[in-house]
Amino acid sequence: MRIKNILIIALIMIWAGGAVFAQKKARNNKGTALTDRQFWLQQMDKMVRPVLYNLAEDSLRISMPKVTSVHIDNRDHRIKVQYVEVLGRVLSGIAPWLQLEGGSVEEVALRKQYREWAIKGLKNALDSNARDFMDFDIGGQQLVDASYIALALVRAPWLWENLDKKNQELMMQSIVTTRRFKPVFSNWLLFSAMNEAFLARFGYNWDPMRVDYALQQMEQWYTGDGMYTDGTSFAFDYYNSYVIHPYLAMLANIIGTKTNSYKDMFEKVKKRNERYAIIQERLINADGTYPATGRSIIYRGAAFHHLADMAWRKALPKQLSPAQVRCALTAVIRKTLESPSTYKNGWLTIGLYGDQPNLGDFYNNQGSPYIASNIFLPLGLPASDPFWANPAEKWSAQKIWSGENFENDHSASLK
């Protein structure tokens, strides 16, 4: 017991001083710039470590701050749901990396640690006797966050396969529980559909009607040039990236193996994915900034969830090279995480460039900004992939604003 306590104290001291991976790199390569992949791993580790370490130790409820937006609608309720929220958002972003095998000695060791924490954390979340047990039936927000857990599990089947049968059953039941919540008539329809896709992927009974309703309605909401309305009206925000395109792409991958009914629709989805990826890459300014418009802007790098997802799935259109996308996303990561007030006591603050409370929305709690981890999806590609291995390239904004001759851009209907 004494040895175990010493180890726990040592881990806490390491965490408080910064990410293990980052510290090792600083010592071993003093004066040597990190590669892009090393930098991404460093930033991912810094962001995610407090969540999964504490959940694995059954201490998330003790350690996680109870912070909410200054515009919050129901503070007590939003705090109650923040634990499922942070779990789903963190796992959905690092799932492809957890699924990957191989890499440097340091990366393999880091992944091994995170895999252990993820499995232990999931078991604690499903154990009704654990402090960190998570209810999935507190309110409608948990339909959203259960879907991010579902998304993580289909992105990383390793997680599912390494849960024992008892916990697989508990997870399935937890996700099914959220069927009782009526989705908002918006991108929320996709959350219901993703939960059903998870069930379909792992051999459970699933409801084709919930999937069909979401797909057919999104088709009605397609407005042109690769973009969908979020509900009945269009908003110039990042929900096409936060949710709509990544979810439609995964639904196409899973449901497309179950039925041919959506073959034509999924072909259009693919082309729209590509067009919106082009738009997303052009939104990234030469310094890594981007238009701070629309709600949920505190999700930071998740504004480029779609572009990162396309890179991870090796689905980028021919107009975008993997290396230019890597460099553009690296710039976004640097810019959105560089402010000294990005973290407070190791936890993400509510803001886009540091701690900016007024940017929060009525539904934001401490778990909300962790959807930013979805910018790290390309870590699921091996270091040998062109995304990481090819030399650095300028992205569109850098080329244009440095005076290079550059191809013009044209809209596409794709209806």
TrEMBL record:
Domain DUF2264, residue spans: 36-395
Transmembrane feature ranges: none
PANTHER family: DUF2264 DOMAIN-CONTAINING PROTEIN, LINALOOL DEHYDRATASE_ISOMERASE DOMAIN-CONTAINING PROTEIN
Protein name: DUF2264 domain-containing protein
Species of origin: Pedobacter suwonensis
